[in-house]
Amino acid sequence: xxxxxxxxxxxxxxxxxxxxxxxxxxxxxxxxxxxxxxxxxxxxxxxxxxxxxxxxxxxxxxxxxxxxxxxxxxxxxxxxxxxxxxxxxxxxxxxxxxxxxxxxxxxxxxxxxxxxxxxxxxxxxxxxxxxxxxxxxxxxxxxxxxxxxxxxxxxxxxxxxxxxxxxxxxxxxxxxxxxxxxxxxxxxxxxxxxxxxxxxxxxxxxxxxxxxxxxxxxxxxxxxxxxxxxxxxxxxxxxxxxxxxxxxxxxxxxxxxxxxxxxxxxxxxxxxxxxxxxxxxxxxxxxxxxxxxxxxxxxxxxxxxxxxxxxxxxxxxxxxxxxxxxxxxxxxxxxxxxxxxxxxxxxxxxxxxxxxxxxxxxxxxxxxxxxxxxxxxxxxxxxxxxxxxxxxxxxxxxxxxxxxxxxxxxxxxxxxxxxxxxxxxxxxxxxxxxxxxxxxxxxxxxxxxxxxxxxxxxxxxxxxxxxxxxxxxxxxxxxxxxxxxxxxxxxxxxxxxxxxxxxxxx
Length: 506
Ligand code: GLN
Prior knowledge:
The protein is 39% helix and 12% strand. By secondary structure, it is α/β, with parallel strands linked by helices. The chain has an eleven-stranded mixed β-sheet with strand order 1-3-2-4-6-5-10-11-9-7-8, with helices on both faces. Glutamine binds next to loops.
């Protein structure tokens, strides 16, 4: 029998719809895979066997009764632990939320349940989604399935690793500065950050509310489009949710797979290539551009000079918003409560003791940075200036999208680095997001498509690289058209998916 964990979500949906396998079998196959390899990978913080199998049984019964089901009904999924799930522990990778069980489902989780996707469990992440390597999780490192000595990216390393290790065909991530796309790039998976407001934020534990977006983590572009259509669309619970319907994403992915890009203008962002990008990453990027040209796309160069300041602006805006969002973790309402070791038990002292014990170093660093940037005397110099830079970045995007339908760059400047390599140098860690952050600051959508293995360097046999495609707000369909075309052209060269080349686990 075929190994059900090797099928894409679309393939699994087909065999489920044809009645060749049941959702219970498909779900159990993934739970078995988790049991077999997650001891090494550590993608999951919580595995919800019972919950998943209950959904699977329900879907099977409804299918047997002849009910019309959603296309992805019965296909299991993993959810990043920053998304609240009713009755299922949710920690956001932090000790401060250890043991907290949310009383409600995020809107996107409600939609997954309504469509009949069994939830396999919650995936590991950098604490409160702060990081690029998942090393800032309070619950240990997630390993990159391509090389267990290396990081799976972050903050959503758990979701990316789960999908790359065939523990789940689909996962949910969140992307505030790149946490879906960069893990996608370094694990050879597909990651999409939708247009800001395209997927409800209701029930996401907020890091930076003006930047956060949830989105799909998958092995194929088509799977991402299918999942995006399940979770996306207007939600009255989120005041920033876009009221209009989503563009036709699945249709765009299917069109793209036909490998005809004539009439599509592709803009290479000058500021997001060249210096600072590993030679192997740059080489794969240049080859992918050739493939796009070969399919009829017109490739032009565009310049976005303000992108040079995106990282600096992000690291003022994001900590500022985070310092405010994280104020609610005070030992009174959620999870951990620590009383002072000695002296009076006042509210303020309980808060200090709880936050001191419950937050990790990176979270504390950002709360301090954000509080400082927002303080009365410095507000204009720091937060105010960063907001002005944000406007300039939005203008650069607008000007570039007048010249090109999509913009492209490598997703991340490097391949997966080793554990510990950047842990003592926050700035080096932050630099991994240079190419992904501008999209969050402007609210535009982006996708990372696996586009090869970096040149073997003697030390590694080659590690995955990612190709980033950006589109104007509300034009997420363009990501899928161009992404699916590139994926199809690359897989023709490779003779199959990139992940087929990953080493066997277990
Ligand atoms: N790595 C970036 C940060 O540390 C982005 C995180 C994210 O997108 N959640 O803030």
